[in-house]
From TrEMBL:
EC number from the UniProt entry: 2.1.1.192
Name recorded for this polypeptide: Probable dual-specificity RNA methyltransferase RlmN
Keywords of the record: 4Fe-4S, Cytoplasm, Disulfide bond, Iron, Iron-sulfur, Metal-binding, Methyltransferase, rRNA processing, S-adenosyl-L-methionine, Transferase, tRNA processing
Main location: cytoplasm
Function: Specifically methylates position 2 of adenine 2503 in 23S rRNA and position 2 of adenine 37 in tRNAs.
Gene encoding the protein: rlmN
Annotated InterPro entries: Aldolase_TIM, Elp3/MiaA/NifB-like_rSAM, Methyltransferase_A, RlmN_N, RNA_MTrfase_RlmN, rRNA_lsu_MTrfase_RlmN/Cfr, rSAM, rSAM_sf
Organism: Desulfosporosinus hippei DSM 8344
Length: 354
């Protein structure tokens, strides 16, 4: 019998499964507490759970399916982990330390089919979706690392911005978020979670209709269809009009702000005219929009893209500010390690192939 990871079960399903197997609800709550609050590495460590229940769990579930393959630590405390999945695929997960807490950037797919032309991950096409448990387990592994360091650190924020398009793996990502948010478990509040999409407009609308109250970010990266198609081929399927329409629906439905991510690429999308086009694109919704300007991290794979000069970034920022747009320039983490999304994995996969 193939065992499932126990991290794929939301609390209600764990209760139901254990009740179906003759166990009480109170025992399921204790198991949940051992999993997410006490964070054991083996079922046998659940000392107040009876042996019959432990046997059931051991026979049907596994606790640790991800193995740490390698990791890199930056001078600023950012750590990039490369985890090996049971089928030997590799995924990246990043821990970032901020003044406001510790944030984990999770991966949602092995590879990615969106094909953003500046992204190291996009070179390795999608092999498969991650399961909900594999998404939850990335956070558990990072928390385990912190627990072992014994400094009382706790994951306080999650960004779903690692390799993959989360809305192309919608159901598993939503399931994972429900487990991460559960107040009896990891209890990471929805306001501390951000999911980032490349702009799958129909899923943005579906997400607006869902009960999940987490932050939404959209990778915009260009203010016109012509330019966006050059760097994000997904724009042919979901052009800016469709995205803005879905954003308007989301804003009207949820009344929550949206962040638009904009990577500044030297001489390509970072000029004053682009800033003005961006202002015009969002003029009807700008009250509920934050723009996050992101300095580009050049990667060997895409020598055509370079980082904008500091002055150019500031000039772009000034144009947006002068038009009353809420915007910021993202602080960078881990510049001294393979920090751009997918770089460590892509290097490792190439080494394995070579
Ligand atoms: S930036 Fe994100 S969506 Fe685009 S190719 Fe890379 S991983 Fe995929």
């Amino acid at each position: 019998m193939k065992k499932e990871s126990i991290y794929g079960l939301p609390l209600e399903q764990l209760i139901e499964w254990l009740q179906d197997h003759g166990q009480k609800k109170s025992r399921a709550l204790r198991v949940w507490d051992w999993l997410y609050r006490k964070r054991v590495a083996n079922f046998s460590e659940m000392t107040d759970v009876n042996s019959e229940c432990l046997e059931l769990l051991t026979d049907h579930f596994i606790l640790q399916s991800l193995r740490e393959h390698t990791s890199q630590e930056s001078v600023d405390g950012t750590i990039k982990f490369l985890f090996k999945l049971p089928d030997d695929n590799l995924i990246e997960t990043v821990l970032m330390r901020h003044k406001f807490g510790s944030s984990v950037c999770v991966t949602t797919q092995v590879g990615c089919n969106i094909g953003c032309s500046f992204c190291a991950s996009g070179l390795l096409t999608k092999h498969r979706d991650l399961s909900g448990s594999e998404i939850v387990e990335q956070i558990m592994k990072v928390q385990e690392y912190m627990d072992n360091a014994r400094q009382g650190e706790k994951v306080s924020h999650v960004v779903v911005m690692g390799i993959g398009e989360p809305f192309d793996n919608y159901i598993n990502v939503m399931d994972a978020l429900r487990i991460i948010i559960d107040h009896k478990g990891l209890a990471i509040p929805g306001r501390g979670i951000t999911i980032s999409t490349s702009g799958l407009a129909d899923k943005i609308s579906e997400f607006a209709d869902s009960d999940l109250k987490v932050n939404l970010a959209i990778s915009l990266h260009a203010p016109t269809n012509e330019l966006r198609e050059q760097i994000m081929k997904i724009n042919r399927v979901y052009p800016l009009e469709k995205i803005i329409q879905a954003v308007e629906y989301y804003l009207a439905k949820t009344k929550r702000r949206i962040t638009l991510e904009y990577i500044l690429l030297k001489d390509l999308n970072d000029q004053r005219e682009h800033a003005l086009q961006l202002v015009s694109l969002i003029k009807n919704i700008q009250q509920l929009i934050n723009i996050n300007l992101i300095p580009y991290n050049p990667v060997d794979e895409h020598p055509q893209y370079q980082r904008s000069d500091h002055e150019t970034m500031l000039a772009f920022y000034d144009v947006l500010k002068k038009h009353g747009i809420n915007c910021s320039i993202r602080l960078e983490h881990g510049r001294d390690i393979e920090a751009a999304c997918g770089q460590l994995r892509s290097k490792q996969v190439k080494a394995n192939q070579g």
